[in-house]
isochorismate synthase (Insolitispirillum peregrinum), 397 residues
Amino acid sequence: MSINSGAVATGSHRAASSDISQSFLFRSPHDGWLWADGLEDVSDRVRASTPADLAGQVQRLLAARQGTQQAPCLVGALPFQGMASARLFLPGRVIRDASSLPMALPHDLRWPAPRSTGRSLPAEEGYCARVAAALDEIAAGQYSKVVLARALTLEFDAPVPVAGMIAALAERYPQAFLFAVPQANRQGVFLGASPELLLRRRNGWVDSNPLAGSVPCHPQAAEDRAQAEALLASDKNRREHALVSERVADVLSGYCDQLSVPDEPSLIRTGTLWHLSTAIRGRLRDPSVSSVELAAALHPTPAVCGHPTGAARQAISRLEGFDRGLYAGMVGWCDHTGDGEWAVSLRCADLAGAFLTLYAGAGIVAGSDPVEELAETATKMRTVLGALGLTLRAEAA
Ligand SMILES: C=C(O[C@@H]1C=C(C(=O)O)C=C[C@H]1O)C(=O)O
Protein backbone atom coordinates (compact mmCIF):
# COMPACT_ATOMS: atom_id res chain seq x y z
CA MET A 1 0.00 0.00 0.00
CA SER A 2 2.87 2.42 0.52
CA ILE A 3 4.48 4.79 -1.93
CA ASN A 4 7.73 3.00 -1.84
CA SER A 5 10.54 5.33 -0.92
CA GLY A 6 11.29 8.53 0.93
CA ALA A 7 9.43 9.53 4.07
CA VAL A 8 6.35 7.45 3.39
CA ALA A 9 4.82 5.49 6.20
CA THR A 10 1.88 3.10 6.37
CA GLY A 11 -0.30 1.45 8.96
CA SER A 12 -0.76 2.76 12.43
CA HIS A 13 1.62 5.73 12.20
CA ARG A 14 -0.06 8.72 13.81
CA ALA A 15 0.31 12.35 12.89
CA ALA A 16 -2.20 13.97 15.19
CA SER A 17 -0.17 17.11 15.82
CA SER A 18 -0.45 18.39 12.21
CA ASP A 19 -2.76 21.21 11.16
CA ILE A 20 -5.30 19.40 9.02
CA SER A 21 -6.17 22.55 7.05
CA GLN A 22 -2.54 22.69 5.85
CA SER A 23 -2.43 19.01 4.86
CA PHE A 24 -3.58 17.26 1.69
CA LEU A 25 -6.03 14.43 2.26
CA PHE A 26 -7.37 11.89 -0.19
CA ARG A 27 -9.34 8.76 0.56
CA SER A 28 -10.11 6.29 -2.18
CA PRO A 29 -12.57 3.39 -1.93
CA HIS A 30 -9.81 1.25 -3.51
CA ASP A 31 -6.73 2.12 -1.48
CA GLY A 32 -7.84 3.92 1.66
CA TRP A 33 -6.32 7.10 3.03
CA LEU A 34 -3.45 9.18 1.75
CA TRP A 35 -2.40 12.03 3.99
CA ALA A 36 0.42 14.42 3.10
CA ASP A 37 1.97 17.27 5.05
CA GLY A 38 5.04 19.50 4.96
CA LEU A 39 3.61 20.67 1.63
CA GLU A 40 5.87 22.57 -0.77
CA ASP A 41 3.60 24.57 -3.06
CA VAL A 42 4.67 23.90 -6.66
CA SER A 43 1.48 25.25 -8.28
CA ASP A 44 3.44 28.00 -10.09
CA ARG A 45 6.05 25.57 -11.37
CA VAL A 46 3.57 23.47 -13.34
CA ARG A 47 2.33 25.52 -16.25
CA ALA A 48 1.88 23.05 -19.08
CA SER A 49 -0.47 23.39 -22.00
CA THR A 50 -0.67 19.71 -22.99
CA PRO A 51 -1.05 16.52 -20.90
CA ALA A 52 2.40 15.32 -22.07
CA ASP A 53 4.07 18.63 -21.04
CA LEU A 54 2.31 18.46 -17.69
CA ALA A 55 3.53 14.91 -17.16
CA GLY A 56 7.09 15.95 -18.13
CA GLN A 57 7.10 18.82 -15.62
CA VAL A 58 5.73 16.60 -12.86
CA GLN A 59 8.26 13.89 -13.65
CA ARG A 60 11.15 16.38 -13.43
CA LEU A 61 9.88 17.67 -10.07
CA LEU A 62 9.62 14.12 -8.75
CA ALA A 63 12.98 13.03 -10.19
CA ALA A 64 14.67 15.87 -8.29
CA ARG A 65 13.33 14.35 -5.08
CA GLN A 66 14.58 10.83 -5.59
CA GLY A 67 17.31 9.81 -3.19
CA THR A 68 16.26 12.52 -0.71
CA GLN A 69 14.29 11.98 2.47
CA GLN A 70 11.22 13.56 0.89
CA ALA A 71 8.29 11.64 -0.51
CA PRO A 72 8.51 11.27 -4.33
CA CYS A 73 4.84 12.01 -4.87
CA LEU A 74 2.88 14.94 -6.28
CA VAL A 75 -0.49 15.67 -4.66
CA GLY A 76 -3.17 18.29 -5.27
CA ALA A 77 -5.92 19.53 -7.54
CA LEU A 78 -6.15 20.98 -11.04
CA PRO A 79 -8.96 23.40 -11.94
CA PHE A 80 -11.72 22.92 -14.48
CA GLN A 81 -10.12 25.51 -16.77
CA GLY A 82 -6.57 26.91 -17.14
CA MET A 83 -3.98 26.64 -14.38
CA ALA A 84 -4.55 29.86 -12.40
CA SER A 85 -6.18 28.18 -9.42
CA ALA A 86 -4.12 24.94 -9.54
CA ARG A 87 -3.05 23.64 -6.11
CA LEU A 88 -0.14 21.26 -6.51
CA PHE A 89 2.30 20.18 -3.82
CA LEU A 90 5.36 18.10 -3.13
CA PRO A 91 4.87 16.79 0.40
CA GLY A 92 7.61 16.40 2.99
CA ARG A 93 5.82 13.33 4.29
CA VAL A 94 3.12 10.99 2.98
CA ILE A 95 1.28 8.53 5.17
CA ARG A 96 -0.92 5.86 3.62
CA ASP A 97 -3.29 3.77 5.62
CA ALA A 98 -5.79 1.48 3.98
CA SER A 99 -8.39 1.59 6.69
CA SER A 100 -8.28 4.72 8.80
CA LEU A 101 -7.25 8.33 8.75
CA PRO A 102 -3.78 8.62 10.23
CA MET A 103 -4.82 11.34 12.63
CA ALA A 104 -7.43 11.78 15.32
CA LEU A 105 -10.64 13.44 14.13
CA PRO A 106 -13.30 14.89 16.39
CA HIS A 107 -16.24 12.61 17.24
CA ASP A 108 -18.39 15.12 19.02
CA LEU A 109 -19.48 17.26 16.08
CA ARG A 110 -21.15 20.60 16.69
CA TRP A 111 -21.90 22.95 13.82
CA PRO A 112 -22.39 26.70 13.86
CA ALA A 113 -25.80 27.88 12.56
CA PRO A 114 -26.20 29.26 9.02
CA ARG A 115 -26.99 33.00 9.01
CA SER A 116 -29.21 32.87 5.91
CA THR A 117 -30.44 30.51 3.22
CA GLY A 118 -27.42 31.45 1.11
CA ARG A 119 -26.66 33.32 -2.10
CA SER A 120 -26.81 31.37 -5.35
CA LEU A 121 -24.67 32.46 -8.31
CA PRO A 122 -26.43 32.61 -10.69
CA ALA A 123 -29.66 33.08 -8.71
CA GLU A 124 -32.07 30.14 -8.99
CA GLU A 125 -34.29 31.81 -11.64
CA GLY A 126 -31.14 32.91 -13.47
CA TYR A 127 -29.90 29.31 -13.48
CA CYS A 128 -33.19 28.11 -15.03
CA ALA A 129 -32.97 30.89 -17.66
CA ARG A 130 -29.43 29.76 -18.55
CA VAL A 131 -30.56 26.16 -18.91
CA ALA A 132 -33.37 27.38 -21.21
CA ALA A 133 -30.78 29.35 -23.24
CA ALA A 134 -28.60 26.23 -23.51
CA LEU A 135 -31.62 24.22 -24.69
CA ASP A 136 -32.13 26.78 -27.49
CA GLU A 137 -28.47 26.47 -28.47
CA ILE A 138 -28.78 22.66 -28.44
CA ALA A 139 -31.90 22.89 -30.63
CA ALA A 140 -29.96 25.17 -32.98
CA GLY A 141 -27.29 22.45 -33.30
CA GLN A 142 -24.43 24.36 -31.57
CA TYR A 143 -23.60 21.40 -29.31
CA SER A 144 -25.42 18.32 -28.00
CA LYS A 145 -24.63 18.52 -24.26
CA VAL A 146 -23.44 21.17 -21.80
CA VAL A 147 -22.98 20.93 -18.03
CA LEU A 148 -24.20 24.09 -16.32
CA ALA A 149 -23.26 24.68 -12.71
CA ARG A 150 -24.00 27.16 -9.96
CA ALA A 151 -22.32 28.17 -6.71
CA LEU A 152 -24.10 28.71 -3.39
CA THR A 153 -22.43 30.65 -0.58
CA LEU A 154 -23.61 30.22 3.00
CA GLU A 155 -22.42 32.29 5.92
CA PHE A 156 -22.38 30.72 9.40
CA ASP A 157 -22.39 32.48 12.75
CA ALA A 158 -18.91 31.07 13.52
CA PRO A 159 -16.11 29.29 11.60
CA VAL A 160 -17.03 25.79 10.44
CA PRO A 161 -14.44 23.32 11.81
CA VAL A 162 -12.43 21.79 8.93
CA ALA A 163 -11.52 18.57 10.79
CA GLY A 164 -15.17 18.12 11.76
CA MET A 165 -16.33 18.51 8.15
CA ILE A 166 -13.81 15.95 6.95
CA ALA A 167 -14.84 13.53 9.70
CA ALA A 168 -18.54 13.96 8.88
CA LEU A 169 -18.01 13.49 5.12
CA ALA A 170 -15.79 10.44 5.69
CA GLU A 171 -18.33 8.79 7.95
CA ARG A 172 -21.34 9.57 5.80
CA TYR A 173 -19.85 8.61 2.43
CA PRO A 174 -17.63 5.53 2.93
CA GLN A 175 -17.63 4.76 -0.82
CA ALA A 176 -16.69 8.27 -1.99
CA PHE A 177 -13.38 9.79 -3.02
CA LEU A 178 -12.89 12.13 -0.11
CA PHE A 179 -10.51 15.06 -0.46
CA ALA A 180 -9.26 18.19 1.28
CA VAL A 181 -6.82 20.57 -0.43
CA PRO A 182 -5.41 23.74 1.18
CA GLN A 183 -6.18 26.91 -0.78
CA ALA A 184 -3.51 29.59 -1.38
CA ASN A 185 -2.59 32.06 1.39
CA ARG A 186 -4.37 30.04 4.09
CA GLN A 187 -7.67 31.03 2.44
CA GLY A 188 -9.43 27.91 3.56
CA VAL A 189 -9.79 24.39 2.22
CA PHE A 190 -11.37 22.90 -0.89
CA LEU A 191 -13.07 19.69 0.21
CA GLY A 192 -15.64 17.19 -0.91
CA ALA A 193 -16.82 13.60 -1.35
CA SER A 194 -16.85 12.74 -5.06
CA PRO A 195 -18.39 9.57 -6.48
CA GLU A 196 -16.42 9.77 -9.75
CA LEU A 197 -13.08 8.15 -10.63
CA LEU A 198 -11.36 10.01 -13.46
CA LEU A 199 -8.29 7.78 -13.66
CA ARG A 200 -6.44 5.23 -11.59
CA ARG A 201 -3.15 3.74 -12.81
CA ARG A 202 -1.61 0.73 -11.11
CA ASN A 203 0.99 -1.72 -12.49
CA GLY A 204 0.37 -0.91 -16.14
CA TRP A 205 -3.44 -1.02 -15.87
CA VAL A 206 -5.85 1.90 -15.88
CA ASP A 207 -9.41 2.30 -14.62
CA SER A 208 -11.92 5.06 -15.18
CA ASN A 209 -15.51 5.19 -14.02
CA PRO A 210 -17.46 7.94 -15.77
CA LEU A 211 -20.86 8.85 -14.35
CA ALA A 212 -23.65 10.89 -15.95
CA GLY A 213 -27.43 10.69 -15.73
CA SER A 214 -28.84 11.18 -12.23
CA VAL A 215 -31.96 10.90 -10.08
CA PRO A 216 -32.27 11.61 -6.35
CA CYS A 217 -32.39 8.72 -3.89
CA HIS A 218 -35.73 8.15 -2.18
CA PRO A 219 -36.07 7.43 1.55
CA GLN A 220 -38.58 4.57 0.89
CA ALA A 221 -36.90 1.42 -0.47
CA ALA A 222 -39.57 0.56 -3.08
CA GLU A 223 -39.69 4.11 -4.49
CA ASP A 224 -35.91 4.27 -4.40
CA ARG A 225 -35.64 1.13 -6.53
CA ALA A 226 -38.33 2.41 -8.91
CA GLN A 227 -36.44 5.72 -9.38
CA ALA A 228 -33.23 3.82 -10.12
CA GLU A 229 -34.95 1.57 -12.65
CA ALA A 230 -36.59 4.55 -14.34
CA LEU A 231 -33.12 6.14 -14.61
CA LEU A 232 -31.71 3.02 -16.24
CA ALA A 233 -34.58 2.99 -18.75
CA SER A 234 -34.53 6.74 -19.46
CA ASP A 235 -33.59 7.62 -23.03
CA LYS A 236 -32.57 11.17 -22.12
CA ASN A 237 -30.23 9.98 -19.34
CA ARG A 238 -28.74 7.20 -21.45
CA ARG A 239 -27.93 9.67 -24.23
CA GLU A 240 -26.36 12.00 -21.67
CA HIS A 241 -24.32 9.12 -20.26
CA ALA A 242 -23.21 7.65 -23.58
CA LEU A 243 -21.56 10.94 -24.58
CA VAL A 244 -19.32 10.61 -21.51
CA SER A 245 -18.51 6.89 -21.59
CA GLU A 246 -17.81 6.97 -25.35
CA ARG A 247 -15.40 9.88 -24.99
CA VAL A 248 -13.53 8.30 -22.05
CA ALA A 249 -13.24 5.01 -23.97
CA ASP A 250 -12.09 6.90 -27.06
CA VAL A 251 -9.31 8.78 -25.21
CA LEU A 252 -8.14 5.67 -23.35
CA SER A 253 -8.13 3.57 -26.52
CA GLY A 254 -5.31 5.87 -27.72
CA TYR A 255 -3.17 4.69 -24.78
CA CYS A 256 -4.28 1.07 -24.27
CA ASP A 257 -3.80 -2.17 -26.18
CA GLN A 258 -6.65 -3.86 -24.32
CA LEU A 259 -9.74 -1.97 -23.26
CA SER A 260 -12.89 -3.35 -21.71
CA VAL A 261 -16.00 -1.16 -21.98
CA PRO A 262 -19.36 -2.59 -20.87
CA ASP A 263 -22.07 -2.37 -23.55
CA GLU A 264 -24.66 -1.08 -21.10
CA PRO A 265 -24.39 1.40 -18.21
CA SER A 266 -25.02 0.18 -14.67
CA LEU A 267 -26.37 1.99 -11.59
CA ILE A 268 -24.47 3.37 -8.63
CA ARG A 269 -25.93 4.92 -5.49
CA THR A 270 -24.01 7.66 -3.68
CA GLY A 271 -26.28 8.15 -0.67
CA THR A 272 -27.98 11.21 -2.16
CA LEU A 273 -28.23 10.27 -5.86
CA TRP A 274 -28.39 7.38 -8.28
CA HIS A 275 -26.11 7.70 -11.32
CA LEU A 276 -25.60 5.81 -14.54
CA SER A 277 -22.06 4.41 -14.42
CA THR A 278 -19.62 2.69 -16.81
CA ALA A 279 -16.49 1.04 -15.36
CA ILE A 280 -13.76 1.07 -18.03
CA ARG A 281 -10.48 -0.87 -17.67
CA GLY A 282 -7.47 -0.97 -19.95
CA ARG A 283 -3.86 -2.12 -20.20
CA LEU A 284 -1.36 0.57 -21.13
CA ARG A 285 0.46 0.07 -24.41
CA ASP A 286 3.33 2.22 -23.10
CA PRO A 287 3.55 1.59 -19.34
CA SER A 288 5.64 4.74 -18.80
CA VAL A 289 2.65 7.07 -19.39
CA SER A 290 1.83 8.51 -15.97
CA SER A 291 -1.49 8.82 -14.18
CA VAL A 292 -1.27 12.61 -14.32
CA GLU A 293 -0.85 12.57 -18.11
CA LEU A 294 -3.76 10.17 -18.58
CA ALA A 295 -6.03 12.11 -16.22
CA ALA A 296 -5.17 15.40 -17.95
CA ALA A 297 -5.86 13.82 -21.35
CA LEU A 298 -9.34 12.79 -20.17
CA HIS A 299 -10.14 16.10 -18.49
CA PRO A 300 -12.64 17.70 -18.91
CA THR A 301 -14.92 14.78 -19.75
CA PRO A 302 -18.45 15.50 -21.00
CA ALA A 303 -19.59 14.64 -17.42
CA VAL A 304 -18.46 18.11 -16.34
CA CYS A 305 -18.14 19.99 -19.65
CA GLY A 306 -20.27 18.68 -22.53
CA HIS A 307 -20.08 17.58 -26.12
CA PRO A 308 -18.32 18.55 -28.30
CA THR A 309 -15.79 19.76 -25.72
CA GLY A 310 -14.80 23.06 -27.39
CA ALA A 311 -18.33 24.32 -28.02
CA ALA A 312 -19.48 23.20 -24.55
CA ARG A 313 -16.53 24.94 -22.89
CA GLN A 314 -17.44 28.18 -24.70
CA ALA A 315 -21.08 27.83 -23.69
CA ILE A 316 -20.00 27.39 -20.05
CA SER A 317 -17.87 30.59 -20.19
CA ARG A 318 -20.74 32.45 -21.86
CA LEU A 319 -23.65 31.20 -19.76
CA GLU A 320 -22.44 30.17 -16.32
CA GLY A 321 -21.30 33.54 -14.97
CA PHE A 322 -18.83 32.46 -12.25
CA ASP A 323 -15.35 30.99 -12.00
CA ARG A 324 -15.51 27.25 -11.25
CA GLY A 325 -12.04 27.32 -9.66
CA LEU A 326 -11.20 23.76 -8.55
CA TYR A 327 -14.81 22.54 -8.88
CA ALA A 328 -15.18 20.06 -11.78
CA GLY A 329 -11.39 19.74 -12.05
CA MET A 330 -9.34 16.75 -10.89
CA VAL A 331 -7.91 15.91 -7.48
CA GLY A 332 -5.47 13.19 -6.47
CA TRP A 333 -1.84 12.13 -6.57
CA CYS A 334 0.89 10.70 -8.80
CA ASP A 335 4.07 9.02 -7.54
CA HIS A 336 7.50 8.80 -9.18
CA THR A 337 6.61 5.50 -10.90
CA GLY A 338 3.64 7.22 -12.58
CA ASP A 339 1.05 5.32 -10.56
CA GLY A 340 -1.68 7.38 -8.97
CA GLU A 341 -5.36 8.09 -8.68
CA TRP A 342 -7.40 11.14 -9.72
CA ALA A 343 -11.06 11.80 -8.93
CA VAL A 344 -13.32 14.36 -10.61
CA SER A 345 -13.66 17.23 -8.07
CA LEU A 346 -17.41 17.05 -7.43
CA ARG A 347 -19.83 17.24 -4.47
CA CYS A 348 -17.46 19.80 -3.05
CA ALA A 349 -17.11 23.20 -1.45
CA ASP A 350 -14.65 25.91 -0.52
CA LEU A 351 -14.63 26.29 3.23
CA ALA A 352 -13.06 29.55 4.45
CA GLY A 353 -13.80 30.27 8.09
CA ALA A 354 -17.50 30.99 8.43
CA PHE A 355 -18.10 30.94 4.64
CA LEU A 356 -18.96 27.78 2.74
CA THR A 357 -19.34 27.92 -1.06
CA LEU A 358 -20.92 24.82 -2.56
CA TYR A 359 -20.75 23.91 -6.25
CA ALA A 360 -22.90 21.65 -8.38
CA GLY A 361 -23.89 21.26 -12.01
CA ALA A 362 -26.17 19.20 -14.21
CA GLY A 363 -25.83 17.86 -17.73
CA ILE A 364 -28.19 19.56 -20.19
CA VAL A 365 -29.27 17.69 -23.34
CA ALA A 366 -32.35 17.93 -25.59
CA GLY A 367 -35.30 17.01 -23.36
CA SER A 368 -33.84 18.46 -20.12
CA ASP A 369 -36.21 20.49 -17.95
CA PRO A 370 -34.76 23.69 -16.33
CA VAL A 371 -36.61 23.27 -12.99
CA GLU A 372 -35.58 19.61 -12.73
CA GLU A 373 -31.96 20.52 -13.48
CA LEU A 374 -32.04 23.21 -10.76
CA ALA A 375 -33.39 20.60 -8.32
CA GLU A 376 -30.61 18.23 -9.39
CA THR A 377 -27.95 20.83 -8.51
CA ALA A 378 -29.59 21.25 -5.09
CA THR A 379 -29.58 17.49 -4.53
CA LYS A 380 -25.90 17.35 -5.47
CA MET A 381 -25.16 20.13 -2.96
CA ARG A 382 -26.85 17.99 -0.32
CA THR A 383 -23.75 15.72 -0.24
CA VAL A 384 -21.75 18.43 1.54
CA LEU A 385 -24.71 20.10 3.24
CA GLY A 386 -26.00 16.79 4.62
CA ALA A 387 -22.70 16.36 6.48
CA LEU A 388 -23.66 19.58 8.33
CA GLY A 389 -27.22 18.38 8.87
CA LEU A 390 -28.65 21.01 6.46
CA THR A 391 -31.06 20.85 3.51
CA LEU A 392 -31.97 23.28 0.73
CA ARG A 393 -35.31 24.69 -0.36
CA ALA A 394 -34.79 24.04 -4.10
CA GLU A 395 -34.62 20.29 -3.44
CA ALA A 396 -38.36 20.28 -3.10
CA ALA A 397 -38.77 21.68 -6.64
C1 LIG B 1 -21.53 18.00 -12.56
C2 LIG B 1 -21.74 17.20 -11.51
O1 LIG B 1 -21.87 15.84 -11.60
C3 LIG B 1 -21.69 15.18 -12.83
C4 LIG B 1 -22.90 15.24 -13.65
C5 LIG B 1 -23.86 14.24 -13.59
C6 LIG B 1 -25.17 14.41 -14.32
O2 LIG B 1 -25.35 15.45 -14.97
O3 LIG B 1 -26.02 13.52 -14.24
C7 LIG B 1 -23.62 13.07 -12.84
C8 LIG B 1 -22.43 12.86 -12.26
C9 LIG B 1 -21.29 13.76 -12.48
O4 LIG B 1 -20.50 13.28 -13.53
C10 LIG B 1 -21.77 17.73 -10.12
O5 LIG B 1 -21.86 16.93 -9.17
O6 LIG B 1 -21.68 18.95 -9.95
Summary: The chain has a mean pLDDT of 91. The CA atoms of residues 78 and 86 lie 5 Å apart.
